[in-house]
Specification:
6-stranded antiparallel β-sheet, 4 helices, Immunoglobulin-like, single chain, mainly beta, 671 residues, 5 domains, Jelly Rolls
């Protein structure tokens, strides 16, 4: 969720002398214009867009081209600047040019309500601008007024541009020293030790030459890193990596990061020094199936050129990827197979032109080089979601069953089930293409998908029956189904897969064997779900457990004990992912009896070759264990000499049971 700062009333705003931020707008309230703002001219062309083209976080403001020569202004609330002689305006923006250098875009100010506008920044773009952060220092006569306003404007031929995106508008009075923790870039989903990273921005007038950054997980220990030798100028940013690694057991945590010092002391505005991000340590990883979504049209000449390369590439990777194409309603009359659901998907991604290639939820260039780069990265980046799907077609009706198995807690997720036709030919336009591949025909239940808050290792099944009559389907025996699991807010696609027609998935969820440190667990039984084992005294390493499933297509997830004593669980999910059961292994560590007699018991030499002596015992039973608790040998009525030379090199524990006491000792075999 985007952050909102409302420090002043929007009608008659009075500046609070101790605050540097006068106005901030990030469009997260979902309205256009936002509260207190106004639009003069072509108000219908301004919208609150779910895109993030300006370089911020969705949503953002968007102006769409118009077939007219006109002026339009997006106007701020009135602001009381009587305490200031100058202020700074910063904002993210992206200008999508169509042709020429007209219209002009800019920022202007005024005071007195209906007064003349004074431009403080203007440019006639000859091409795209941004996405970029832009900063403007304003010190004209309007600053100091009690009714100061600023606006973003376009002036000229509005058909020569496509779109102007604006986000993260901040009007403020710069302090000498102001470091902002802009973002925590540590991944949301972790597997193993991970670096704590982020970005610090300098909004003050002074250079930042040093930073002290702290982080903490929950209420745990505070970790500190000092950064020196920096030279972060006004408006510049610094990407940092802390010294310590974040390494926690499976689960969900709050990661707190904050700037403790800048240039050796707290900075002038500590309200923007800290952030908190939820991170998840995942329980299991599986192969990722890269997902491609293309926005295209049979009336788009560049689409034909791109597809000449992309479709053969898809054919070479058909078993490794998922692909869906959305036919668009432009340029010109557009593709006759355009649907409103495709339009919703277009709006979700902020698609501005065709061809527009989305890969994994993010736009990439329409080039085979970019496609290959994404594919190579995605295929080597495991997923933490597994999906299976089956569908059957009867007449114009389709029955679909989908099961999603998450290996982390995934809130605000969407499951998209998309029926597509492999090849269509009757939507031919004017771009030279005569056949079209993987054309979306229906999204189930609709373009918004199914909203789900997933829980780690809890399967979620969707069953639906849909009548496909009324769609553009040409041949009902040429249909496919794509399933996509996506983070709704961030747009990242966690996993995708094709459903299998008339598939029957196995329901065998048992284990054939369990290995503990590579050796079969003693007395394991497929039908027994809970086990208890006492490990030798001094054991500190959790045994490494591995489950061997009865069905090779089952999914086995091992969650080790966090400490000893503790429990390791092994979840077994059948091929259908919906059928599963859990095996639990409870480990305790034996506590020896320490008395005077026990202290007199000695083992020597240590280390040894496997042959050694034990003094201070008589008629004892001696058992030898590996560090993981596996018993490897036992000697009854031992009177001192032990020959375990058949054992390999390593660390072992010996347990000595006699009438007087039980003692555990550690020794090393080193032949």
């Amino acid at each position: 969720m985007k952050r909102i700062y409302i420090l002043l009333s929007f009608i008659s705003l009075t500046f609070l002398g101790f605050s540097q931020t006068i106005l901030q707008e990030d469009f997260s309230d979902g309205t256009m214009p936002p509260t207190g703002w106004s639009i003069d001219g072509l108000a219908a062309n301004w919208s609150n867009s779910s895109s993030n083209s300006a370089g911020g976080v969705a949503p953002e403001a968007k102006f769409t081209y118009d077939n007219s020569i006109a002026v339009t202004r997006f106007i701020s609330p009135e602001l009381n600047l009587t305490a200031f002689e100058s202020v700074t305006l910063r904002f993210n923006h992206f200008y999508d040019n169509y042709s020429g250098t007209d219209p002009k875009i800019g920022v202007a100010t005024r005071s007195g309500g209906k007064g003349e506008w004074t431009s403080v920044w203007e440019v006639g773009p000859s091409g795209n601008i941004g996405p970029e952060l832009h900063m403007i220092e304003i010190d004209n006569d309007d600053v100091g007024a009690a009714d100061f306003q600023f606006c973003f404007y376009l002036d000229g031929n509005l058909y020569n541009m496509d779109y102007w995106y604006i986000d993260n508008i901040v009007l403020y009075n710069p302090l000498p020293l102001d470091a902002e923790l802009t973002v925590i870039t540590t991944p949301t989903y972790l597997n193993g030790p991970t670096e704590v990273t982020g970005t610090v921005s300098n909004w003050g007038n002074d250079f930042i030459v040093s930073l002290d950054i702290d982080w903490q997980v929950g209420d745990g220990d505070v970790n500190s890193t000092s950064f020196t030798g920096l030279a972060i100028g006004t408006g510049d940013s610094y990407d940092f990596t802390c010294d310590q690694l974040l390494d926690f057991p499976i689960g969900t945590y709050d990661l707190h990061v904050w700037i403790r010092n800048a240039n050796g002391a707290p900075d002038g505005d500590q309200n923007n020094d800290s952030l908190t991000k939820e991170v998840n340590v995942v329980s299991h990883l599986v192969q990722r199936i890269p997902c491609f979504e293309e926005f295209t049209s049979s009336t788009c000449a560049p689409c034909a050129g791109y597809n000449e390369q992309f479709i053969p590439w898809v054919g070479n990777h058909a078993e490794e990827i998922t692909l869906v194409k959305y036919q668009m309603s432009w340029p010109g009359a557009g593709d006759p197979y355009y649907t409103d659901e495709g339009g919703v998907r277009r709006g979700y991604y902020g698609v501005s032109w065709v061809p527009w290639q989305v890969a994994g939820g993010n736009q990439i260039e329409t080039s085979i080089g970019a496609v290959n780069a994404f594919f190579d990265e995605a295929i080597n980046n495991p997923s933490f979601v597994k999906i299976v799907g089956s569908h059957s077609i009867s007449g114009t009706s389709i029955d679909i069953t989908t099961t999603v198995l998450p290996f982390a807690n995934l809130t605000n997720s969407r499951v998209h089930i998309i029926v597509f036709e492999n090849v269509t030919t009757e939507n031919t336009g004017n771009n030279g293409e005569t056949e079209f591949h993987h054309v979306m025909m229906k999204m189930i239940p609709d373009a918004n998908g199914t909203s789900v808050d997933f829980t780690d290792r809890v399967p979620y099944t969707i069953t639906d029956q849909v009548d496909l009559s009324g769609t553009f389907i040409e041949e009902y025996d040429d249909l496919g189904v794509a399933i996509i699991v996506q983070d709704f807010a961030g747009k990242t696609i966690f996993q995708s897969v094709y459903s299998l027609e008339d598939a029957l998935f196995a329901t065998e969820e048992g284990l054939e064997d369990v290995l503990m440190d590579g050796t079969s667990y003693p007395d394991f039984n497929t039908d027994v779900l809970e086990y208890n084992m006492e490990l030798p005294e001094g054991t500190t390493v959790v045994p490494l457990m591995e489950g061997i499933p009865l069905d090779d297509n089952a999914t086995v997830v091992v969650v080790p004990a966090e400490e000893l004593p503790g429990a390791t669980t092994i979840d077994v999910f059948a091929e259908d992912l919906a059928t599963y059961q859990r095996y639990t292994f409870n480990f305790t560590v034996q506590v020896g009896i320490e008395d005077q007699n026990a202290n007199n018991i000695k083992l020597f030499p240590n280390p040894n070759s496997g042959q050694f002596y034990i003094s201070g015992i008589e008629d004892a039973t001696v058992s030898i264990y590996t560090v993981s608790g596996k018993r490897t040998a036992e000697y009854k009525n031992s009177n001192g000499k032990i020959d375990a030379s058949e054992l390999s090199n390593g660390i072992y524990f010996i347990k000595i049971n006699s009438d007087q006491n039980t003692v555990s000792k550690r020794f090393t075999i080193n032949k």
